Amino acid sequence: MHVLKLAIVDTGLGNLKSIEHSLTRVGGIDAFVSSDAKEIETANVVILPGVGAFDEFMKRLKLLNLINVLNEKALQEKIPLLGVCVGMQAFFEKSSEGCGANGLGWMEGQVERMEKKEGITIPHIGWNNVDFVNSQDPMCKGFPNSTDFYFLHSYVVTCPSHLAIAHCNYGQTINSIVRKENIIGVQFHPEKSYTQGVKLITNFIDDARAKHHAEA
Amino acid sequence: MLKPRLIALLIVHDGIVVQSFNFNHYLPVGDLRVSIEFLNAWGIDEICIIDIDATNESREPDFRTLEMAVKNSMVPVSIGGGISNLSTVRNALLAGADKVVVNRAFIKRPDFITEIVSNFGAQCAVVSIDAFELDGVFYCYDYLSRKKTDKTVEQALMIAEIVGAGEVLLNSVQSDGKGCGMNLRLARSLANLVEIPLVLAGGVGKGKHLLDALQVQGVQSVAAANIFNHFEHSPMVLKSFLQLNGVSQRILEQGAYGAAEFDILERPVR
Prior knowledge:
The complex is a heterodimer.
Chain A: E1 4-9, H1 17-26, E2 29-34, H2 37-41, E3 45-50, H3 54-63, H4 67-76, E4 81-85, H5 86-89, E5 94-95, E6 101-102, E7 110-113, E8 124-132, E9 147-153, E10 155-158, E11 164-169, E12 173-180, E13 183-186, H6 194-215
Helix pairs in contact in A: 1-6
Chain B: E1 2-3, E2 6-13, E3 16-21, E4 25-30, H1 32-41, E5 46-51, H2 53-56, H3 63-70, E6 77-80, H4 86-94, E7 99-102, H5 104-108, H6 111-120, E8 125-134, E9 137-142, E10 147-152, H7 153-162, E11 167-172, H8 184-189, E12 198-201, H9 207-214, E13 219-224, H10 226-230, H11 234-244, E14 261-262, E15 268-269
Parallel strand pairs in B: 2-5, 2-13, 5-6, 6-7, 7-8, 8-11, 11-12, 12-13
Antiparallel strand pairs in B: 2-3, 3-4, 8-9, 9-10, 14-15
């Protein structure tokens, strides 16, 4: 079996260990953590984990000279790429978080602070049930509707509805999984969502493997 | 909808998990790694590990032990005890923590939270406040000197929000370890004061205590320690109890107790 070479992009923010641990539960992957553009260049699958603030996250991607390699991987090579939380938010055009910043601009849409409402505490922290709009998508395979995932964020993505393949509700509808061709983003943390999260990462890897084989 | 979380507090003393009574008496429970494994399998929503010796001995938590243990958790983990500078925060995250819990360093220097937030994000900064009641007023408690401070919990909570904390873990010193119910007066006195989530801890002896606490406005989640260490399948049983009483819970497919009712001792009856 052809082993997938998977790069976990390290921006120096937060916890990459849990992503690595989830991947060991999936198996059959040669995963490495890197902040080096040359190393990431060699991968055929990329995960962009994100914690922290959007502006800080984008600043680090720039300082580490990773924007070009990510653009090339995502848009030219079109390899499977998964963004988590801020890693997903970075796919969009811009965010109002912190001092405000432009994102990678791969998807149409923007990132804004969650609406303030009575009975809604911010950040959105905890387990919320996700409903799958497009159950045909490989990411949604085998999940019953209303599966609980762990969320931890204060900002949300506003985008055209055809990009969102799953959402949840927290005072407003929150786009929870987005996809544009090979680029997939999840707002929640699959690496912290118990076996449901491992299953989601497995779906991503299975799909990546299928595409890789089709091309090989 | 968002489900109120059931958070397990694992108090670590002399390298093992202990049962704590009123912050001054401790009995052994066992190995941290084992606790984390069974709590995961039994459907806990989140785990919070506090090394109570760390501040006392002016050291970092024992990250090597923590890393070995936390590796097995598939739900979020926060680590506290001796978190007083950014390099300790970084080490906690490197050891596999998703969040850090700051207590004493916050009371001494609230700006420390802002530093954590600007470096690692608000989602990873949990402020922990131990509340001590005197003449109807709740004061912040200093567990090192075992004395109440002059700062009220209300003040501390508002400061926590201003400096950017992601959530607040609120423990009642006088309820701790008794299992006689959570401090609802404390919870009620703080309702609607802040926009960030409040997690109430201390005093859980049965499901009804959690239910009472979650019915107080402003209590977003609940944390407990001893009950999880001494009753089999406790997270599952407690969650089934809450769900049956109208509090929506995350219930594992393989861990659904599916009890139609609970007896007077809150044991599930099939």
